[in-house]
Amino acid sequence: MLQKLRTVIYHVADLQAAKEWYIKATGVQPYFEESFYVGFDINGFELGLDPSMKTLHPVITPNLTGLWKA
Length: 70
Prior knowledge:
About 15% of the residues lie in helices and about 40% in strands. It is α+β, with helices and mostly antiparallel strands. The chain has a single domain (about 5-65), classed as 2-Layer Sandwich (Signal recognition particle alu RNA binding heterodimer, srp9/1).
């Protein structure tokens, strides 16, 4: 049985701009920051930013990935 949504990863075109936006929106600094991923811990919830847009299909695949805790 699924308990809760644990992780959401947004695929973003501009990692720096997205990071700054989420810092302002949440008041939380990233706990992990590299050129390939920025991660925020929002009260035990993972909010990730992924700059890789290569694997996304513009119609079929949305720009986010959700992971559930079982």
